[in-house]
Design a protein that fits this description.
The longest helix has about 35 residues, at about 110-140. By secondary structure, the chain is mainly alpha-helical. The chain has one domain. Helices cover about 75% and strands about 0% of the residues. A two-stranded antiparallel sheet has the order 1-2.
Amino acid sequence: MEASSFSNVISSFQIVLSPISLILATIGVFGGMVFGAMPGLTAVMAITIALPFTFFMSPSHAIILLIAIDIGAISGGFISACSLNMPGTPSSVATTFDGYPMGQKGKLAEAFGISIISSGTAGLVSGVILIFAAPVLAKIALKFGPFEYFSLGIFTFLAISGLMSGDLWKNLLGVAVGLVIASIGSDPITGLHRFTFNISNLSGGIALLPFMVGIFVLPQLIDDITSFSDVMIPQNAHNIQLKHMLPDLKFYKDQAINYIRSFLIGIGIGIMPGIGGTTSNVISYEVARSYSKYPEKFGTGIPDGVVASETANNASIGGAFITWLGLGIPGDAVTAILLGALMIHGIQPGPLLFKNHPVLVNVIFTTNLISNIIMILMGFFLIKWFIKILGLHKKFLLPIITIFCILGAYSTNNRIFDIWVVIFFGIFGFIWKKLGLSLVPVLIAYILQPIVEKGIREGISISKGSFLPLVSRPISLTLLIMGFLSVLLGTYMKHKVNERNKDQVLDD
């Protein structure tokens, strides 16, 4: 495709390797690792806070900063997972199982080194696969018509609801709520107002950034504020030396099969909408234990568990990027925000991105690779700084983050109403989470609603009111079948997990 032409590749390298781009990527990775290392400060929060600062950047510089933050945040979770037994991000939950016991045995430096190598190399390899897989998927998607885009949206909603953790119907409820929120404003065809309740500020709809800040960042801030705890860094974390972080050659030989298997699990799960690194690291860990010659040692502090978790969670980033770029479908909350960032800059995501903005696509490819290299270097040479930052009490950080959130939301349209939007959806999101419901289906449905609505309305208009093309067109039918199969697969997987948990309770 055009995105792969030599001149476009050279142009992208010139952009990414320029001094300002490298500075942005370095700042992004460093800031992301800080957020990833601090329990409660997630990748979603980091990217959402940074989004307003990209308004006055070029699209290329904006996406460089945001992707670097994502890679840094997902990777940085291992720092607190290994040293505090507290995953900095949900993607590092399984890292605590063996990373923390390794630290307790005096092998904290080794745990850090294994995490950095596993995360960084998995990110690099998945980035290379992204370069080849996304254009192929985009070529297929260029054949999509209105009905195919509608079916693609339905597939995404069903896959998210079925494969994500939690109850299927609760996730579907989240999708429905997201669709309703995105429908607020003026009808794109008739211009009539919908769900505005005679509030003039709602006639233009709910702005993307205030909505994201409200629904994702504010509930997390409320949780963090109400659960202050002193962070106690173990003494051996302050004495980390580079020579102790580098594994020997025997490590690479012993972990080769575990690494490859975990990588394939991570990138495969990343491609599937709605799952991502949060699930892939746990599944990869369990698979590694199942195939191990010494499963009884898992959880006692062995490298195998750390490799499985950290390889899978970073491989899933590349997997999620494949569907994000190839189809314009966000696989998780982070890619939904990245998709929204492109829309804010007037760029329509999806397969036409490769044709209309080939240089930007190659910038994304290149940034993914460069950011992982920066992350590896920072992980090895700045680990002591991250340990010091991890020792800061959140009471110093949370007020600053809250101010940035409010200012960022206000800067969208320079109106007070958007601050009220943040507060409203912050309360909504907090209650939603307390009810045990996931906010990811709400956000992804909000992002995809225009595509789904446009697809079905244009399709019906072309077919003169007939819904038959939904099942008579092969690609559309295939997407719908895949959606329902995702629900069945998710139901089966959750049933097996529940049975295993019951068996464990009985054994205890």
